[in-house]
Amino acid sequence: MGLHIGLDFGTSTISAAVWYPESDSVKVMPAIVRDVGPVPNAIFYAKEDQQYLGIQAKRRSLTNPQHFIREIKRELTGEGWTRRIFGVEKTAVDVAADVFSIIKENIERNFGEE
């Protein structure tokens, strides 16, 4: 039947919970990525096809800050925000979609379902 996931895509952090309809209960996910607790809303583009989220992104930003983006939610309401990453112009919506893609992949890997 698939997973029922709720995401709190906050300005500075991201959290997730799983809803279990059979028991009508909710359990906060221990981690979306390897971070413990809420994940910082930050993404780092290491390669065209490799990104890191949260604390891992913040750590990598020290060596290559131009590939680091944080608090992208602030930019979703306006127009005109772009950043060139590996020769590709990304909008705030593109970056948010990349964040959600990482979360989706990690949830599927940890739970074994889509």
Would you kindly provide a written description of the structure presented here, covering whatever features stand out?
There is one protein chain. The protein is of the alpha+beta class and 114 residues long. 24% of the residues lie in helices and 35% in strands. Strands 1, 2, 3 and 4 form a four-stranded antiparallel β-sheet that branches. Strand 8 and strand 9 form a beta hairpin. The chain starts with a strand and ends with a helix.
Question: Summary?
Answer:
This protein has 114 residues and is of the alpha+beta class. It has helices at 55-61, 92-111, and strands spanning 5-9, 13-20, 25-28, 39-40, 42-47, 50-53, 68-70, 82-85, 88-91.
Tally of individual helices: 2
Instruction: State the shape.
Output: elongated
Outline the biggest β-sheet. Answer: 4 strands, antiparallel
Provide the structure class. alpha+beta
CA(first)-CA(last) distance: 9 Å
Average per-residue pLDDT, rounded, comes to 86
* Helical coverage, percent range: 10-25%
Question: Helix and strand succession?
Answer: EEEEEEHEEEH
Low-pLDDT stretches = none
Strand content: 35-45%
Instruction: Count all strands and give the number.
Output: 9
Rg over C-alpha atoms, rounded to the nearest angstrom: 15 Å
Question: How are the secondary structure elements laid out?
Answer:
Blueprint: E1 5-9, E2 13-20, E3 25-28, E4 39-40, E5 42-47, E6 50-53, H1 55-61, E7 68-70, E8 82-85, E9 88-91, H2 92-111
Antiparallel strand pairs: 1-2, 2-3, 2-4, 5-6, 5-7, 8-9
